[in-house]
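Hello,

I think I submitted the thymidine-5'-diphosphate job twice by accident. Can you confirm which output corresponds to this input? Input:
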Amino acid sequence: MNAGPSSTTIVDDHHRGALVVLEGPDRVGKSTQVERLAQWFRGRGRSVSVSREPGGDALGEAIRTMLLGESVDGWTELFLFLAVRARHLSSVIEPALSRGELVILDRYTPSTLVYQGAQLGEELVTQLATLPVFREPDATIVLDCREPLAALDSADRFEHSGLTGWHERRNGYRALARRHGWLLISGDGPPELVTKRLVETLVKRVTG
Ligand code: TYD
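Support: Only one job matched these inputs. Its output is below.
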């Protein structure tokens, strides 16, 4: 996965900015598909920024290293994810959208609702994570796979709950997708086929 955002600096006069989020449990090919989508849209003349959460800029990446490495209590963790998101929006996402770019994110609010919601209670986490400061994406896509596409990392504190935890999160995404209007796209099959499904879904939503 890239260490941070990649972006062009040219103002895109022909398009309005659009925010697209790729989501899903660990090991469903999100980062691969974010890069493939960016390539596809760039190949058709679109200015694209790619970024990930937690992350976005040097501060976001520093907090990412801390969050992924160190276990903290659930509330501290929630507020750190939200703080990184607020910073990510103001320093990277909003400026790129103002330039007319297509911004593609690897994880965003749905991760908070699924991961922290399961731990701290869905209602309260939803209230905090959907405050107006956290812009609604133009499209949120959940990559849905029947099984993880690669082995889960037992040393990763978000993946150590193994296959049982992974299936709980998959079910969490599927249940919340209906409620929040996220688009569920199959992530099974060759990467080219998954990209084709994503492009078909996105093209009408982010062009114009
Ligand atoms: P991820 O981006 O999947 O990176 P890697 O592939 O290097 O493991 O890891 C980020 C982890 O952070 C992931 O397990 C989900 C978790 N996460 C949350 O719990 N809440 C959030 O709001 C976000 C953005 C991520």
